[in-house]
Amino acid sequence: MTDTTNTEPTKPHRSQWADVWDQLKAHKGAMAGGVIFIVIVLGVFIGPWLWPYDATFIDIRARNQGPSFAHPFGTDQLGRDTLARMMAGGQTSIAVGLTAMLLALSLGSFVGITAGFFKRLDGPLMRLTDLFLALPILPLLLVMMLLFRDPLSSAVGPERGIFILIVIAIGITSWMPTARIVRGDVLALKEREFILAARSIGTSNSNMIKRHILPNVLSPIMVSATLGIANAIITESALSFLGLGFPPDFPTWGRLLNDATQYLQDYPERVFWPGLAISLTVLSVNYLGDGLRDALDPRIRGR
Amino acid sequence: MKAKTLMLGAAAAFAMAPAAMAERGSDGHVNIIYWQAPSILNPYLSSGTKDIESASLVIEPLGRYDPNGALVPYLAEEIPTVANGGVSEDLKSITWKIKSGLVWSDGTPVTATDAKFTADYCMHPEGGCAQLAKFEGVESVEVIDDLTVKVNFSEAKPNPYGPFMGGQSPIIQAAQFADCLGAKAPECTDANFNPIGTGPFVVDEFKTNDVISLSANPNYRDAAKPAFATVTFKGGGDATAAGRAVLETGEFDYAWNLQLAPDVLAKMAEGGKGTPIAAFGSLVERLEMNMTNPSPDLDADTRATVAAPHPFLSDINVRKALSMAIDRNLLVEIGYGQAGRPTCNLVPGPAVYASDNTDCLTQDIAGANALLDEAGWVKGADGVRAKDGVRISILYQTSTNAVRQDFQALIKQWWSEIGVETELRNLNASVFFGGDPGSPDTFQKFYADVEMYANNFDGTDPQAYLSMYRCGNEPKPSSQWQGENINRFCDPAYDALIDELGQTSDLEKRYELSKKMNDMLTKDSFTILPLVDRGRVSAHANSLGGVILNTWDSELWNIADWHRVN
Q1: Domain spans of chain A, in order of start
Q2: A33-50+78-296, what's its fold?
C-alpha cells in the first residue's frame, strides 16, 4: 500500500510566485518592458563607470557637435558629452522615480488597509485622502522649497537636499489613488467567508492583515507601484523642466529636455534623447505593470 | 547733390506724413511682451527694469534722455541749465518749469505740488524708496508757483538732473498717493497698481505678474498721439518665447531684452516677421561679491548684513583670484556674440567716463592659483582650498536664463581649476528681481556668496549709479531689504569720492573721478567683477514703426510716436 502511494507521480510543489512568473513569461509586452527597463537601469548606473566623459566636464572646443564616434549622442552648447549627461540624468530621474514610488506606495497601502479594515478610521482617513487629492503639487513644492531648501541643503548638501524635497513632494501628493483602490479591495475582502472563518478561530487583527488581507490586495498594490514609478519620473521631469528642481548644472532627464528646447530647431536630437529615454522608461514600466496585474490575479491566470 | 537732398527731404516728409496726420488711436492695438512680468507700476517701490519700463507708459518724468544721451524735456518747458538760468550759478538749486495746461489722465491739472510731493514720497524717512539715489543731496523741494518747482541741494550739485529726470524718477499724482507716505507706501495697492499719470496710456486692468491692459490717455498733451488706441503689455515667459512671438509668429509687436544665444537669435530673425535691434548702453553683466555672511545658520537680523563679514570673500586675494580665473572673451563668444563685448568696467560708457582698465581680459588660471597659494589658501584632500578651517565653497545664484546657466557652468569649471567649490542655483527671474521683502530669493537679500545679473544706469552721468555703493545704502532688514549697495561694500575713501564728485562741476575732473571710483569697485577691490558689456537687443515687428531703441532711458520712452507701417 505504502509503495503504491509513494511511487504515484505527484505534481511538484509550486509556490505562488512560480505561477506568477510562468504567467508573466507568457506576457510578451511585460517581458519586453521588463528587459528594456533593466537595460535602462543598468545602462545609467553602470554606464558612467565605463564611459570616459564626465557629465559636467566642459570641453568648449567640442561644442554643438553632432553624433560622432567620440560622442555617440553629440555634445551640447558648452561641449558636454550628451551620452554622459543622459546617464547621469537617468540616475537621478530613476532614483527619484523609485524612491518616490516606494514612499507613495507604503503611505497609500497603509492608509488604504487601515481605512478599509477599521471602520472607525474609515471616515477620517478618507477625508484626509480627499484633502491630499486637492493639494496642487506645484504651489506646494514652491512653498516647500522656500521653507526647507536652506536648512536641508546645509544639513545634507544641496543635491541630496533637493532630492529629499522632490521625493517627499511627489510621494505625499501621489499616494491617494493607491489608498482608495486598496481600501475598496479590503472592504470587499472583509465580507468574504474565509475572513469570517479566520475571525471565528480567533485570528488577531494584525495577523488577519498580514496573512489574509495583504496577500490578497497585493495585485492592485503592485500595479500602482509600476504606474507610480512612471508618474514620479514624469513629475520630476516637469519640475526640472520648470526650473524648480535640482541645481542647474545637475543633469536630470527633465532638465536636459528643458535645456534642449531652445535648440529645438537647430539641434533636434538634443530633445530626442531625453524624450526617448523618458518615454521608453515610462512605457516599459507600464507594460511590466500590466503583465504583473494579469499574472497576480489568480482568476485570469492561465488565460 | 541739392536735388538729391531735396528728394530725400521730400521722401522723409512723405514718410512722416501718415504719422503726423494720424489721429489718436487710429492704429488700433499694439502688443508688447516683456519676459519679466511687472509686479507693480510704481518705480519708487521697485528697482526692477520691468516695473520701471512698464510704468513709463503711464507716468512720466519732467525730462528724459534720448538715444544719444542728450536731455529732452517731457513735462517741463525746457531743460534747466546754468545758461538759461534754470540752474543757479552756485549749482545748489535747479528750477523746473512745468508746461502749462498739462492735465493728469483724470482731468485735474498737473502742478508743482505734484513734483514736490513726489520728492517727499521718495525721501520719506520711514519708506524704503528704491530710487533714493536719484534724490541724493536734495535738501528741500519748494513750490514757487503753480507750475514752478525748485529743488535745493545741500551742496553744489554739478549734475542736478537726479530728481524728476529719466524713467526711474517720474512724477506721481499728489492727490492719489497722499495717504501712501512712508511705511504705508507698499499698502496702497490701488495707487501702486493703477497710478494716474500724464503718459500716453492709462491702465485699464493690472494683473500682477501677468498682463497689463492699457488704453490711450484721453487727456494726453498731444491730441494726435498716441497712434495706438490700446496696448496689451504681457509679462512673463522667457526670452525665447518672447523672441519667437515677435520674430517668427508675429503674435507680438515688441519684445524687450532678448537675452538669447546669438545663433538662436539669428535663426529666429530669419522668420522674417520682425527685426532685432541692438544698441550699447551701460548695461554690464557682472558677478557681485557678497561682503557679508549669507549663512543660513545666522539669525534673520544678522544674515547677509554688515554685522557679519563674509568668511572668505572678505579676503581680496580670493576675489582677485576668482576674477583672474574667468575668460571673459569666451563668455562673450558663447553668450552674446555681436550683442556683447568683454569689459572690466562697471561704467563702460559713455566713452569719456570709461576707465582704460583692461587687465582682467586675459584669463590667468596659473596666476590665480599662485595668488591663492601665497595668501595661505591651501588645497585640501578634496581639491578645495581652505584656510583656518574655512573652505572656499561658493553658492552662486542668478536668474533662470539659458545664457546665464551656461555662464554658471563655465565659471564653475574655471573656479574648480583654482580649487574653489561652487554650488549653482537659478531662480525665477520674476522672483529674483521682484524685490519682495518676504522672499529669501531676491537679489537684494543676497542669500548667496556670489550672484550674477546685469544692471545699468539712466542717463549719461554715472554719479547716481556710483553713489549706490555708499556705506549704509545696503539692503538690510531695517529698510525692508531695499537699497542699492548690493555687495554691502563700505569704504570711507569711496564715500569721500562720492561727496567730491557731488561737488565737482568741471567735466574733465568728473570723468577722472568717475574712472577712479569705477576702478575702486572693480580692479582695486574686486567687489564687482564685470563680465560683459551688453548691447541691448530687443525686437520689433516689421509692421511697427517709430521704435528707437534707447539705452539711456526706458525702452518705451517714445511709445507715443509708435505707429503702424504697411
Answers
A1: 33-50+78-296
A2: MetI-like fold (1.10.3720)
